[in-house]
Structures are given as structure tokens and as C-alpha cells.
Amino acid sequence: MTQITLSFDNGPDPDVTPQVLDVLRRHDIRTTFFVLGDKLRERRYLCERAHGEGHAIGNHTYNHLVPLGMSAAAGMATFEIVRTQELIGTLAHERRFFRPFGGGGLLDDRLLNPEALDVLVQGGFTCVLWNAIPEDWVRPQEWVDRALQQCFSQAETLIVLHDIATGAMNQLDRFLNLAKDRGARFTQDFPESCVPIERGRILRPVDRYLSRAA
Ligand SMILES: [Zn+2]
Prior knowledge:
Blueprint: E1 3-9, H1 16-27, E2 32-35, H2 37-40, H3 44-52, E3 56-59, H4 76-88, E4 97-98, H5 114-122, E5 126-127, H6 144-151, E6 156-162, H7 172-181, E7 185-186, E8 197-198, E9 201-202
Parallel strand pairs: 1-2, 1-6, 1-7, 2-3, 4-5
Antiparallel strand pairs: 8-9
Helix pairs in contact: 4-5, 6-7
The structure holds zinc ion.
């Protein structure tokens, strides 16, 4: 049995997020949107809609410019995480989902720095990583095959897609149909292996995600 958890990063986008929500509604699939504070500021209504339709809203930093693990600037990680969480406000999941970003989706020491880790632990955040990244932003027309390959090579997949204006989400319906045809089951739950920190408690080693720069 192949189980797939969808997640959408870097939104909300005024055109693409509603398109994604329409497709998910047709397929009766619930997911998590990891949003940017800077975009949420102007487009909260999109997160309200997603939340109202049963999707979870997670924190994906405010600016998404410099991976937290590549910055040693004091206060930067705190601002990026805390300010975004304030903007998410009542739309936040009680587990306070946070997803870091790095370089090209690699799970390495660009994801976090010591200050970020401290904010996550003190703030009771749940850190949500991933185990499939079909690079929909690199090949917006050709990510589906790679995504299927990744999903069907393991029992539980947490896949990262992006509700941004690349055109990639025009393929979302096709991806979901193909995955369903091959027997995939969709869930909103995250595979345990993708969640190193749960409500501020470090459950599995985070050293490999942590730069020592700061
Ligand atoms: Zn991102």
C-alpha cells in the first residue's frame, strides 16, 4: 500500500492556490499549505479558504530568501518564524507546523541554525520535513512522472509541491488521477520519519539539519 501526503510550499498565490484548492476538493484530499508570511499578509483570505476546507496551515518563514542555516545574523531566524506565526494566527494548527527550506530541497545543514532550533523548541513547534521533492518548479510540465516514481518507491511519502505561478499545478489533477489509478491512498498525516521535532520535543537527531554558523 502506497500512502501519499501532499504539501504545498511558498504560497499563497492569488491564482494558483484557488486552482489547487479546487482540484483537491474534487479529489476529496486534505493537505498542508506551508505559507510565507510576506505573502500571507496580503492574501489571508486564501489561507482562510484552505483552512475552512480542512487543510492545515503551516509556517514556511517570512521572506524565504536566505535559508536559516546559511545565516548567522542574530534575530533573523526568530523574526522569520515568529512573525509568520503571528500572521497565521488563529489559522495555525495546534501542533504549530513549521517547515524550513534549504537549497534545491536537499535535507542538509542549510535548513536550520542554532537560533532557529531554539525558537522551534521554545515555541512548541512541530518541524515537518519531506521525503519526496519532484522539483515541480524546475520542470513544471514534467514533474509528474518523477513524482510517481518517488511516491511508489516507498511506503509513505510526504511530497513537496509549490502553489506558485510556474504552471506546474496544471498537472496536479493528472498526477492525482495517475496515483489513484495505481492504488495510492492519500492522507493528511505526516510520516513519522519526516517529523524530527514534535510540539517542541526533539524526537530524532537534528544535527544533520543544523549549521553551526550562528
Ligand atoms: Zn520553500
